[in-house]
Write a structure and sequence with these properties.
This protein has nine helices and 13 strands. With 290 residues, it is an alpha/beta fold. The radius of gyration is 18 Å and the shape is globular. It starts with a strand and ends in a 14-residue tail after the last strand.
């Protein structure tokens, strides 16, 4: 089975990057203007064979029809209702993954807005509770807490089981998937740019093609259509950076943050635990990659 999944985050206007979702230059790389997002939706609509699907419909797709498109949004930023309105104009449904510790906080979605999203037919899923900086390095106990607590919060808000999730920061590992499966999650989205699906302990693992600020509507349409060259280019770049992360460990992230102009505050263990915005570098970070 295959599925073409696209990963978006937030919408912002007038360079107000901290108005929706997480703050700072690293997060700002994934935030689009409303006009740019509308251009993406229009370009995607021109290549679709059928309307975007949800994970719960994948088994209903004939093999000869080819992979269905799934549209996803991470973090649960304050721009989520606007995104849903734009999707609703096309009668499209999407997947919204919520960082549950941030529900109701400034720049993030509220519990009532989450319920409204679900009423509109969108899939609500977990994006962990605390959004760990490197989730794959959490202990097994912490991984289970992240998934269990976040899905429990969303289940209480919605009054129905939440069995879909996405991995924060793209920091996936088999341990992350096993903890998700243990927490009752049946579908887990990663940031690996691939259409291939597989299972870990009964949990389906789905990759996604990521959209960054500055990417053209044509590129988004290429991903939606599964065009080989653009998909392969992102896959190659992603895997090269995966290797660098493995070699560099925490130093990779520190160097990346410094290159983006993040100001790091350091805990007593020496680990960078928070980053704040340096607005002078935002304009130059459009081509940066996670």
């Amino acid at each position: 089975m295959k599925a073409l999944s696209i990963l978006y985050h937030d919408l912002i206007e007038h360079d107000a990057y901290d108005d929706s979702g997480f703050p700072g230059p690293a997060a700002a790389r994934y935030k689009l203007s409303g006009d740019d997002f509308e251009d993406h939706l229009e370009a995607i609509s021109l290549v679709l064979r059928s309307t975007p699907a949800t994970v719960f419909e994948l088994n209903d797709v004939p093999v000869l029809q080819g992979p269905r498109l799934l549209i996803t949004f991470d973090d649960g930023g304050a721009s989520t209702p606007r995104i849903a309105e734009m999707l609703g104009q096309r009668k499209w449904r999407a997947h919204f993954f919520i960082t549950t510790d941030r529900i109701g906080n400034p720049a993030f979605i509220s519990a009532q807005q989450i319920r409204e999203l679900r009423k509109q037919g969108h899939v609500i899923g977990s994006h962990s509770c605390s959004h760990p900086r490197r989730m794959s390095e959490c202990s097994s106990e912490q991984l289970l807490i992240e998934w269990q607590r976040s899905t429990a919060t969303l289940t209480e808000i919605l009054g129905e089981p939440v069995i879909v999730a996405s991995v924060p920061g793209g920091n996936y590992s088999t341990r992350v998937a096993r903890a998700a499966a243990q927490a009752g999650i049946k579908f887990l989205f990663t940031s690996e740019p691939t259409s291939r699906l597989y299972t870990v302990d009964g949990c389906w693992i789905l990759g996604r093609y990521g959209i960054l600020r500055g990417m053209s509507a044509t590129t988004a349409a290429d991903f939606a259509a599964g065009r080989s060259l653009p998909c392969l280019q992102q896959w190659a770049t992603w895997n090269a950076k995966k290797a660098l992360k493995s070699i560099g460990g925490s130093y990779y992230h520190r160097l990346r943050d410094l290159s983006l102009g993040e100001k790091l505050s350091v805990s007593h263990t020496g680990e960078n635990v928070h980053a704040t915005k340096n607005t002078s570098t935002l304009a130059g970070s459009a081509d940066a990659r996670k």
